[in-house]
Amino acid sequence: MISSHTPVLIPLGFLVAGLLVPLAGALRRRLAPAVAVGATGLVAAVSLAGLARVASEGPIRYRLGGWAPPMGIELVLDPLSAFMASVVACVALVVLVHSLRVVEHENPDQAVPFYAAAMIYLTGLTGMTLTGDLFNLYVFLEISSLSGYALLGLGNRRAPLSAFRYLTLGTAGASFYLLGLAFLYLETGTLNMADMARILPLVPERSVLAVGLVFMTVGMGLKMALFPLHGWLPDAYTNAASTSTALVAPIGTKVAAYVLLRLFFFVLGPEAARGELPLLAAVGYLGAAGVIWGSLMAITKSELKRMLAYSSVAQVGYIAVGIGLGSPLGFIGAVLHTVNHACMKACLFLVSANLRMRQAHTHIPRFDQHLRRAMPWSMAAFALAALSMIGLPPTAGFFSKWYLALAALEQSNWVFLGTLLASSLLNAVYFFRVLERIYLIRPADPGSADVPHETGALALREVGGSMLVTTVFLAVSLLALGLLNAWIVTHLIRPMLPAGL
Amino acid sequence: MLDHIGGHYPYYFLAALMVIGFYGMLSKRNLVKKTVGMSILQSAIILFWLVAAYKHEATVPVYDQALGLADPSRYINPLPHTLMLTAIVVAVVTLGVAFALIIRIYQTYRSLDESVILDQIE
């Protein structure tokens, strides 16, 4: 009985939690994080169960309020949306467990609003993945964006300004999406994705469609920080509180990338997206430019969080390259990279949160060997995630790049292949720079590694319980994702390939 | 040519409005003016949906004895209007969040001029 309601339970669970968190917080402040983590755990379990059910029994369509699809709104749990919702819920669960101590440490006064905003944020993201209606998608997009601005506005002195810039650009992106949708709606008279997919090939006015699709692509490009629309991302991620970044960075931009996948391959159809209007190619080449530009900028940054933020621009570029290739292998690479990068980036940002907790800075030139002695597990997790970002087997990052490279080879697209190879080298440059400092550079003062650091005994300890477990769990999951990639691709990603690709 | 303009002038007006809004967002230094630009852009897009759904000499989609049900072209499609009601709510909430952030920025820097704020950050 429950399983046929799975599509609506996922966003609804987060929404109810978003309402319960302030109530629980008003009762007892310590209750708020517990409610948030508990609800996220429940929703993660529901979405994984939904994923298993979809894999065995096929998609579930849920009619909101009982209204039949072309008129009413439907939520669709098909292999792709079930997969994305599971990734969002599971990564969010790990990050929120980790956040319990960080929020208490960094912003104890804002804990209740923080968890409420996080729940609303996850409502929006899971809603975007599950909805089968293009206007409903806009509404969920704005729900997630508005709470995202609130989350990223929490942080150091500069955070409100960078969040404001994100707000203006994000609103422009959402407005462009809405404008593009107007063109599509006026030509087809429907907002339902399945209905739109049926009617679009019959529309005679192709130029109107082209204008609409370009507006929608630009809007989503702004949301997913596709080069050159990534301007808001580095500042917003760097200045926000550790947990906000760890929550927004791994899953926020991925969901916008998912919307592009949905729009190109399921609504428009691969043939049309590739053919009359070179939208796929444009997204792919912009992604390739973003890969190189993001990596180059990451090399020049001396602040760990800023470096990771620029590397996010590069990693979103990989997904865009996968979309741009427009072939089954490219699609697999893009989807696989979505989950891999969500785990890698979450792990790296959790390590940076651990560093801020114990060292009170994440300035790379000040890293040295005593970090490795003080925090061996966090640093090992960082090293593993860094190797995965560079793409060394058997970590997860290798396999998504492998599929993307195979797809590029298959189409003899040497530009994309060269980009993938060059970016691995660039990734190696900026990650080995950090790893070298952690593992090889001796502390400036020979004695300072053994005697307590000047910030006190606190600085020499590894982070405690929940923070350490989650960080190491994500690092181990990268190995697991890498070793299980063949299973994931055959059982989860192959069934989601759209017809005609 | 004149016919074309006569039939389409709202679209030219809305295109101009969008450009004005976008220009305000990008080039004004004052954060409140940026927000005004953002609001103009959003309103222009909302109006675009409404203008596109408008039909000459048609009426609200409530059953009218004089018109009957036979001819749907006499009624205006209610869906775009309903959707834009949601979009207006979204726009209002965006404005609220923007002003909240602006208040925080003003409390920190005692200024709303972007160049002054950037000077303080340097």
Write up this protein:
The complex is a heterodimer of chains A (501) and B (122). Helix content of chain A is 75%, strand content 2%. In chain A, helix 2 runs antiparallel to helix 3. With 501 residues, chain A is mainly α. Chain A is globular and about 70 Å long. The longest helix of chain A has 32 residues. Chains A and B meet through helix 5 and helix 6 of A and helix 1, helix 2 and helix 3 of B.
**Global shape of chain B:** elongated
Largest sheet of chain A: 2 strands, antiparallel
Radius of gyration of chain A: 22 Å
Low-confidence stretches of chain A: 447-458
- Tell me which protein chains meet in the greatest interface and how many residues each side has: A-B, 25 and 30 residues
Helix count from the secondary structure assignment of chain A = 20
List the helices and strands and how they pair.
The complex is a heterodimer of chains A (501) and B (122).
Chain A: H1 6-27, H2 31-57, E1 60-63, E2 74-77, H3 79-106, H4 111-130, H5 134-153, H6 159-188, H7 193-199, H8 206-224, H9 233-239, H10 242-268, H11 270-274, H12 279-300, H13 304-325, H14 328-359, H15 369-374, H16 376-390, H17 396-410, H18 414-439, H19 465-483, H20 485-493
Antiparallel strand pairs in A: 1-2
Helix pairs in contact in A: 1-2, 1-4, 2-3, 2-4, 3-4, 3-10, 3-14, 3-19, 4-5, 4-10, 5-6, 5-10, 6-8, 6-9, 8-10, 9-13, 10-13, 10-14, 12-13, 12-18, 13-14, 13-17, 13-18, 14-16, 14-17, 14-19, 16-18, 16-19, 17-18, 17-19
Chain B: H1 2-27, H2 31-53, H3 78-109, H4 114-121
Helix pairs in contact in B: 1-2, 2-3
